[in-house]
Amino acid sequence: MPKKVGWGIVGLGSIAGHAHLPAISESDNSELMAVCSRSESKAKEWARRFGAKRAYSDYLEMIKNPEIDVIDITTPNSLHCEETVLAAEAGKHVFCEKPMAPTVKECEKMIAACKRNNAKMMIGYMLRFKPHHTRIKEMIETGELGTPFLGRAQYHEWVPDDEETYLKSTELSGENPPLQDVGVHCIDTLRFLMGEVIEVMAYSDRIIHRYPADTVSSLLLKLERSAYAFVDSSFCTRFAQRPQKLEIYGTKGSVFAATLGSGPGGKLETLTADGARSYEIPEENHYLKEITHFSDCIVRGMQPAVSGEEGLKTQKVVAAAIESQKKGVKVRVSDVH
Questions:
Q1: Could you give the angle at the alpha carbon of 19 between the alpha carbons of 269 and 7, nearest 5°?
Q2: Which residues contact residue 45 at a Cβ distance below 8 angstroms, ignoring those fewer than 6 apart?
Q3: Enclosing H/E stretch for 112
Q4: What's the pTM value of the predicted model, to 2 decimals?
Q5: Is 8 helix (H, G, I), strand (E, B) or coil?
Q6: Regarding predicted confidence, which is higher, 174 or 243?
Q7: Quick check: 2 pLDDT over 90?
Q8: Cis preceding-peptide flag for 66 (omega within 30 of 0)
Q9: Domain 127-282+316-335 sits in which CATH superfamily?
Q10: Which sequence spans correspond to the domains of the chain?
Q11: φ/ψ of residue 234, rounded to 5
Q12: pLDDT tens profile 142-164
Protein backbone atom coordinates (compact mmCIF):
# COMPACT_ATOMS: atom_id res chain seq x y z
CA MET A 1 0.00 0.00 0.00
CA PRO A 2 1.47 3.40 -1.00
CA LYS A 3 2.57 5.67 1.83
CA LYS A 4 0.02 8.33 2.65
CA VAL A 5 0.99 12.00 2.70
CA GLY A 6 1.31 13.22 6.28
CA TRP A 7 -0.60 16.37 7.22
CA GLY A 8 -0.23 18.70 10.19
CA ILE A 9 -2.73 21.50 10.73
CA VAL A 10 -2.27 24.78 12.59
CA GLY A 11 -5.30 26.78 13.70
CA LEU A 12 -8.23 24.87 15.17
CA GLY A 13 -11.16 27.06 14.29
CA SER A 14 -14.42 26.61 12.42
CA ILE A 15 -12.98 25.91 8.96
CA ALA A 16 -10.58 23.32 10.39
CA GLY A 17 -13.32 21.57 12.37
CA HIS A 18 -16.08 21.36 9.78
CA ALA A 19 -14.02 21.11 6.58
CA HIS A 20 -10.26 20.48 6.60
CA LEU A 21 -9.90 17.90 9.37
CA PRO A 22 -12.81 15.69 8.24
CA ALA A 23 -11.48 15.88 4.65
CA ILE A 24 -7.95 14.87 5.65
CA SER A 25 -9.34 11.97 7.69
CA GLU A 26 -11.52 10.82 4.80
CA SER A 27 -8.90 11.20 2.06
CA ASP A 28 -7.47 7.92 0.74
CA ASN A 29 -3.98 9.37 0.19
CA SER A 30 -3.68 11.62 3.26
CA GLU A 31 -3.09 11.00 6.96
CA LEU A 32 -3.52 13.40 9.87
CA MET A 33 -0.26 13.36 11.81
CA ALA A 34 -0.69 16.39 14.07
CA VAL A 35 -2.80 19.35 15.11
CA CYS A 36 -1.57 22.59 16.63
CA SER A 37 -3.33 25.22 18.74
CA ARG A 38 -2.16 27.84 21.20
CA SER A 39 -4.35 25.97 23.68
CA GLU A 40 -2.68 22.71 24.65
CA SER A 41 -5.94 21.29 25.99
CA LYS A 42 -7.77 22.09 22.76
CA ALA A 43 -4.98 20.56 20.67
CA LYS A 44 -5.17 17.33 22.69
CA GLU A 45 -8.97 17.27 22.52
CA TRP A 46 -9.02 17.75 18.73
CA ALA A 47 -6.23 15.22 18.23
CA ARG A 48 -8.42 12.61 19.96
CA ARG A 49 -11.50 13.77 18.10
CA PHE A 50 -9.97 13.52 14.63
CA GLY A 51 -7.42 10.78 15.19
CA ALA A 52 -4.19 12.80 14.94
CA LYS A 53 -1.03 11.12 16.21
CA ARG A 54 0.32 14.22 17.96
CA ALA A 55 -0.98 17.43 19.53
CA TYR A 56 1.13 20.57 19.71
CA SER A 57 0.80 23.98 21.29
CA ASP A 58 4.10 25.15 19.70
CA TYR A 59 4.05 25.60 15.92
CA LEU A 60 7.85 25.60 15.70
CA GLU A 61 7.89 22.17 17.31
CA MET A 62 5.22 20.76 15.00
CA ILE A 63 7.03 21.72 11.80
CA LYS A 64 10.05 19.72 12.99
CA ASN A 65 8.01 16.50 12.94
CA PRO A 66 9.53 14.29 10.19
CA GLU A 67 6.24 12.44 9.68
CA ILE A 68 4.58 15.63 8.43
CA ASP A 69 4.82 16.37 4.70
CA VAL A 70 2.22 19.16 4.51
CA ILE A 71 1.39 22.02 6.86
CA ASP A 72 -2.26 23.05 6.55
CA ILE A 73 -2.66 26.69 7.62
CA THR A 74 -6.12 27.71 8.87
CA THR A 75 -5.11 30.50 11.25
CA PRO A 76 -6.20 34.17 10.95
CA ASN A 77 -5.15 35.74 7.65
CA SER A 78 -2.45 37.94 9.15
CA LEU A 79 -0.48 34.83 10.23
CA HIS A 80 -0.48 33.05 6.87
CA CYS A 81 2.72 34.59 5.55
CA GLU A 82 4.93 33.98 8.57
CA GLU A 83 3.65 30.43 9.06
CA THR A 84 4.12 29.59 5.37
CA VAL A 85 7.71 30.85 5.35
CA LEU A 86 8.54 28.90 8.50
CA ALA A 87 6.97 25.72 7.12
CA ALA A 88 8.79 25.99 3.79
CA GLU A 89 12.11 26.61 5.53
CA ALA A 90 11.46 23.47 7.59
CA GLY A 91 11.10 21.48 4.37
CA LYS A 92 7.30 21.20 4.42
CA HIS A 93 4.81 21.69 1.62
CA VAL A 94 2.08 24.24 2.36
CA PHE A 95 -1.69 24.14 1.99
CA CYS A 96 -2.98 27.60 2.96
CA GLU A 97 -6.61 28.47 3.51
CA LYS A 98 -7.83 31.48 1.55
CA PRO A 99 -7.16 34.34 1.39
CA MET A 100 -3.51 33.60 0.70
CA ALA A 101 -2.50 36.65 2.79
CA PRO A 102 -3.91 40.16 3.32
CA THR A 103 -1.35 41.92 1.09
CA VAL A 104 0.37 41.35 -2.25
CA LYS A 105 3.84 41.67 -0.72
CA GLU A 106 3.07 38.92 1.78
CA CYS A 107 1.84 36.64 -1.01
CA GLU A 108 5.01 37.26 -3.00
CA LYS A 109 7.11 36.48 0.08
CA MET A 110 5.26 33.18 0.54
CA ILE A 111 5.83 32.17 -3.08
CA ALA A 112 9.51 33.04 -2.89
CA ALA A 113 9.99 31.00 0.31
CA CYS A 114 8.34 27.93 -1.21
CA LYS A 115 10.36 28.19 -4.41
CA ARG A 116 13.59 28.67 -2.49
CA ASN A 117 12.94 25.51 -0.50
CA ASN A 118 11.39 23.38 -3.29
CA ALA A 119 8.10 23.28 -1.41
CA LYS A 120 4.77 23.03 -3.17
CA MET A 121 2.03 25.45 -2.17
CA MET A 122 -1.71 25.34 -2.74
CA ILE A 123 -4.36 27.88 -1.75
CA GLY A 124 -7.73 26.65 -0.47
CA TYR A 125 -10.11 27.91 -3.14
CA MET A 126 -12.24 24.80 -2.89
CA LEU A 127 -15.00 26.13 -5.16
CA ARG A 128 -12.83 25.34 -8.19
CA PHE A 129 -13.40 21.69 -7.27
CA LYS A 130 -17.19 21.95 -7.05
CA PRO A 131 -18.66 19.77 -9.85
CA HIS A 132 -21.17 22.45 -10.80
CA HIS A 133 -18.33 24.85 -11.54
CA THR A 134 -16.27 22.36 -13.52
CA ARG A 135 -19.42 21.72 -15.60
CA ILE A 136 -19.86 25.47 -16.21
CA LYS A 137 -16.21 25.73 -17.23
CA GLU A 138 -16.74 22.90 -19.69
CA MET A 139 -19.75 24.73 -21.17
CA ILE A 140 -17.64 27.85 -21.67
CA GLU A 141 -14.64 26.04 -23.13
CA THR A 142 -16.74 24.04 -25.61
CA GLY A 143 -18.56 27.18 -26.80
CA GLU A 144 -21.92 26.04 -25.46
CA LEU A 145 -22.57 29.52 -24.04
CA GLY A 146 -20.83 31.43 -26.83
CA THR A 147 -18.59 34.25 -25.63
CA PRO A 148 -19.10 35.15 -21.95
CA PHE A 149 -19.52 38.90 -21.55
CA LEU A 150 -21.02 39.35 -18.07
CA GLY A 151 -20.76 37.58 -14.74
CA ARG A 152 -22.14 38.02 -11.25
CA ALA A 153 -21.11 36.36 -8.00
CA GLN A 154 -22.31 36.94 -4.45
CA TYR A 155 -21.33 35.53 -1.08
CA HIS A 156 -22.86 36.93 2.10
CA GLU A 157 -22.54 35.99 5.76
CA TRP A 158 -23.90 37.14 9.12
CA VAL A 159 -21.14 38.26 11.52
CA PRO A 160 -22.84 40.09 14.42
CA ASP A 161 -21.28 42.33 17.04
CA ASP A 162 -21.45 39.69 19.76
CA GLU A 163 -19.69 36.94 17.78
CA GLU A 164 -16.13 36.19 18.82
CA THR A 165 -14.16 36.02 15.57
CA TYR A 166 -11.03 37.50 14.04
CA LEU A 167 -13.12 38.48 11.02
CA LYS A 168 -14.14 41.71 12.77
CA SER A 169 -10.51 42.82 13.07
CA THR A 170 -8.70 44.43 10.14
CA GLU A 171 -5.40 43.66 11.89
CA LEU A 172 -6.12 39.93 11.81
CA SER A 173 -8.30 39.66 8.73
CA GLY A 174 -6.91 42.43 6.52
CA GLU A 175 -8.58 45.52 5.11
CA ASN A 176 -12.20 45.02 4.01
CA PRO A 177 -12.90 41.76 5.90
CA PRO A 178 -15.96 40.62 3.88
CA LEU A 179 -13.93 40.86 0.68
CA GLN A 180 -10.98 39.04 2.26
CA ASP A 181 -13.13 36.31 3.78
CA VAL A 182 -15.85 35.46 1.24
CA GLY A 183 -15.59 37.96 -1.61
CA VAL A 184 -12.31 36.32 -2.61
CA HIS A 185 -14.23 33.15 -3.43
CA CYS A 186 -16.35 35.14 -5.88
CA ILE A 187 -13.29 36.71 -7.51
CA ASP A 188 -11.43 33.41 -7.79
CA THR A 189 -14.44 31.55 -9.20
CA LEU A 190 -15.02 34.26 -11.82
CA ARG A 191 -11.32 34.17 -12.73
CA PHE A 192 -11.51 30.39 -13.03
CA LEU A 193 -14.51 30.58 -15.35
CA MET A 194 -14.14 33.85 -17.28
CA GLY A 195 -10.46 34.80 -17.29
CA GLU A 196 -8.24 37.41 -15.71
CA VAL A 197 -9.38 40.69 -14.16
CA ILE A 198 -7.66 43.76 -15.58
CA GLU A 199 -9.44 46.64 -13.82
CA VAL A 200 -11.52 47.19 -10.67
CA MET A 201 -13.97 49.78 -9.37
CA ALA A 202 -14.98 49.19 -5.77
CA TYR A 203 -17.13 50.44 -2.92
CA SER A 204 -17.21 49.34 0.72
CA ASP A 205 -18.76 50.65 3.91
CA ARG A 206 -19.39 50.00 7.60
CA ILE A 207 -23.09 49.40 8.08
CA ILE A 208 -25.46 47.42 10.34
CA HIS A 209 -22.78 46.43 12.89
CA ARG A 210 -20.74 48.54 15.32
CA TYR A 211 -17.29 46.96 15.07
CA PRO A 212 -14.56 49.06 13.38
CA ALA A 213 -14.32 47.30 10.03
CA ASP A 214 -16.06 47.39 6.66
CA THR A 215 -19.04 45.06 6.60
CA VAL A 216 -20.19 45.32 2.98
CA SER A 217 -18.30 45.32 -0.32
CA SER A 218 -19.31 45.75 -3.95
CA LEU A 219 -17.03 45.46 -6.99
CA LEU A 220 -17.28 46.03 -10.72
CA LEU A 221 -14.60 44.04 -12.53
CA LYS A 222 -13.38 44.55 -16.08
CA LEU A 223 -12.01 41.28 -17.43
CA GLU A 224 -10.00 40.34 -20.47
CA ARG A 225 -11.80 39.93 -23.81
CA SER A 226 -14.18 42.83 -23.04
CA ALA A 227 -16.11 41.03 -20.32
CA TYR A 228 -17.41 42.48 -17.06
CA ALA A 229 -18.49 41.05 -13.70
CA PHE A 230 -20.11 42.13 -10.43
CA VAL A 231 -19.09 40.87 -7.00
CA ASP A 232 -20.92 41.61 -3.76
CA SER A 233 -20.17 40.32 -0.29
CA SER A 234 -21.05 41.28 3.26
CA PHE A 235 -21.27 40.29 6.91
CA CYS A 236 -24.77 41.81 7.14
CA THR A 237 -27.09 39.17 5.70
CA ARG A 238 -28.74 37.28 8.55
CA PHE A 239 -30.89 34.97 6.46
CA ALA A 240 -28.70 34.53 3.38
CA GLN A 241 -29.62 31.38 1.48
CA ARG A 242 -26.92 28.76 1.05
CA PRO A 243 -25.55 28.32 -1.54
CA GLN A 244 -25.62 31.76 -3.18
CA LYS A 245 -25.77 33.15 -6.70
CA LEU A 246 -23.37 32.71 -9.59
CA GLU A 247 -24.45 33.90 -13.03
CA ILE A 248 -22.60 33.86 -16.38
CA TYR A 249 -24.10 35.49 -19.47
CA GLY A 250 -22.83 34.51 -22.91
CA THR A 251 -23.69 35.30 -26.52
CA LYS A 252 -25.33 31.87 -27.01
CA GLY A 253 -26.66 31.17 -23.55
CA SER A 254 -26.55 31.92 -19.87
CA VAL A 255 -25.95 30.01 -16.64
CA PHE A 256 -27.89 30.61 -13.43
CA ALA A 257 -26.46 28.81 -10.43
CA ALA A 258 -26.84 28.80 -6.66
CA THR A 259 -23.50 27.23 -5.84
CA LEU A 260 -21.35 29.72 -3.92
CA GLY A 261 -20.90 28.63 -0.33
CA SER A 262 -19.06 26.17 1.85
CA GLY A 263 -21.66 23.41 1.65
CA PRO A 264 -22.14 20.76 -1.04
CA GLY A 265 -24.78 20.75 -3.74
CA GLY A 266 -26.63 23.65 -5.29
CA LYS A 267 -28.74 24.44 -8.32
CA LEU A 268 -27.52 24.80 -11.90
CA GLU A 269 -29.70 25.96 -14.79
CA THR A 270 -29.01 27.17 -18.32
CA LEU A 271 -31.01 29.19 -20.80
CA THR A 272 -30.12 28.81 -24.49
CA ALA A 273 -31.87 28.73 -27.86
CA ASP A 274 -33.00 25.22 -26.94
CA GLY A 275 -34.82 26.58 -23.91
CA ALA A 276 -34.32 26.26 -20.16
CA ARG A 277 -32.56 23.25 -18.66
CA SER A 278 -31.90 22.15 -15.08
CA TYR A 279 -28.92 19.93 -14.27
CA GLU A 280 -28.83 17.14 -11.73
CA ILE A 281 -25.26 17.05 -10.49
CA PRO A 282 -24.25 14.58 -7.77
CA GLU A 283 -23.04 16.13 -4.55
CA GLU A 284 -19.32 15.88 -3.85
CA ASN A 285 -17.16 17.07 -0.97
CA HIS A 286 -15.04 19.77 -2.58
CA TYR A 287 -12.86 20.06 0.54
CA LEU A 288 -12.05 16.36 0.24
CA LYS A 289 -11.28 16.80 -3.46
CA GLU A 290 -8.82 19.66 -2.88
CA ILE A 291 -7.02 17.85 -0.04
CA THR A 292 -6.72 14.66 -2.08
CA HIS A 293 -5.57 16.65 -5.10
CA PHE A 294 -2.74 18.32 -3.20
CA SER A 295 -1.54 15.04 -1.70
CA ASP A 296 -1.59 13.55 -5.19
CA CYS A 297 0.46 16.49 -6.48
CA ILE A 298 3.08 15.80 -3.82
CA VAL A 299 3.24 12.08 -4.61
CA ARG A 300 3.36 12.60 -8.37
CA GLY A 301 5.44 15.78 -8.44
CA MET A 302 2.69 17.80 -10.14
CA GLN A 303 1.81 21.49 -9.98
CA PRO A 304 -1.33 22.11 -7.84
CA ALA A 305 -4.43 23.40 -9.60
CA VAL A 306 -4.55 26.43 -7.30
CA SER A 307 -0.90 27.33 -6.88
CA GLY A 308 0.56 30.22 -4.93
CA GLU A 309 0.73 32.16 -8.18
CA GLU A 310 -3.02 31.66 -8.63
CA GLY A 311 -3.65 32.83 -5.09
CA LEU A 312 -1.53 35.92 -5.74
CA LYS A 313 -3.57 36.81 -8.84
CA THR A 314 -6.78 36.79 -6.82
CA GLN A 315 -5.17 38.82 -4.04
CA LYS A 316 -4.00 41.43 -6.54
CA VAL A 317 -7.64 41.96 -7.49
CA VAL A 318 -8.44 42.41 -3.79
CA ALA A 319 -5.61 44.94 -3.45
CA ALA A 320 -6.86 46.84 -6.50
CA ALA A 321 -10.36 46.91 -4.98
CA ILE A 322 -9.07 48.28 -1.68
CA GLU A 323 -7.12 51.00 -3.49
CA SER A 324 -10.12 51.82 -5.67
CA GLN A 325 -12.40 52.21 -2.66
CA LYS A 326 -9.92 54.48 -0.90
CA LYS A 327 -9.27 56.73 -3.89
CA GLY A 328 -12.70 56.62 -5.52
CA VAL A 329 -11.23 55.68 -8.91
CA LYS A 330 -10.92 52.57 -11.06
CA VAL A 331 -7.60 50.76 -10.60
CA ARG A 332 -5.74 48.51 -13.03
CA VAL A 333 -4.65 45.23 -11.48
CA SER A 334 -1.28 45.45 -13.25
CA ASP A 335 -0.55 48.67 -11.32
CA VAL A 336 -0.88 46.96 -7.93
CA HIS A 337 2.33 45.96 -6.17
A1: 130
A2: none
A3: helix 104-116
A4: 0.96
A5: strand
A6: 174
A7: no
A8: no
A9: Dihydrodipicolinate Reductase; domain 2 (3.30.360.10)
A10: 5-126+288-305, 127-282+316-335
A11: -165, 170
A12: 999 999 999 999 999 999 999 99
